[in-house]
TrEMBL record:
PROSITE patterns: PTS_EIIA_TYPE_2 (PS51094). This is Ascorbate-specific PTS system EIIA component. The phosphoenolpyruvate-dependent sugar phosphotransferase system (sugar PTS), a major carbohydrate active transport system, catalyzes the phosphorylation of incoming sugar substrates concomitantly with their translocation across the cell membrane. The enzyme II UlaABC PTS system is involved in ascorbate transport. It comes from Streptococcus dentapri. It is found in: Cytoplasm. Keywords: Cytoplasm, Kinase, Phosphoprotein, Phosphotransferase system, Sugar transport, Transferase, Transport. Residues 6-148 form the PTS EIIA type-2 domain.
Length: 161
């Protein structure tokens, strides 16, 4: 599960979007993966349902959320999508989010061992949230993913499989 390859294969980077609330933001963040067939429509419903039950457990840092649900909730293949919002939306816990990186993993092991380190590497780049919001093209996002490849979090990971 390679972040850059998943973005390219699923055509799943959408920039400068508008959402009226957190549910619409999550829908916008999941849509590219529904369109590519990586997840079924029920995946969105599962994210909303678990957010309403447990809160937005997937807000990883100020300004950034990683919406995801269980593999059995309609995940067809490992994938990622990334959207940016022109104006942040408020999540149920009061957090303002302007970057959503959707994760769809076919197993918990992939989620933990392969997906999370790549996400950490990307978001540990200096000013990552603002830089992503400022991106005008998917290629600019992909360049940031490339830049993050030197992160110590990725040492020993086989990202070509």
């Amino acid at each position: 599960m390679n972040l850059k390859k998943a973005f390219e294969e699923n055509n799943s980077i959408r920039l400068g979007l508008s959402a009226s609330d957190w549910k619409e933001a999550v829908k916008l963040a999941v849509n590219p993966l529904i369109e590519s067939g990586a997840v079924d429509k029920e995946y969105y419903d599962a994210i909303i349902s678990s957010t309403e039950q447990y809160g937005p457990y997937y807000i990883l840092m100020p300004g950034m959320a990683m919406p995801h649900a269980r593999p059995e909730a309609g995940v067809n293949r490992d994938s990622f999508a990334l959207i940016t919002l022109t104006k942040p939306v408020k999540f149920p816990d009061g957090s303002d989010v302007s970057v959503l990186l959707t994760l769809a993993a076919t197993s918990s092991a992939i989620h933990t061992s392969v997906a999370i380190p790549q996400i950490i590497a990307l978001f540990e780049l200096e000013n990552s949230i603002q830089r992503l919001v400022d991106c005008k093209t998917p290629e600019e996002v992909l360049a940031m993913v490339e830049e993050s490849k030197n992160s110590p979090y990725l040492e020993g990971l086989d990202l070509d499989s």
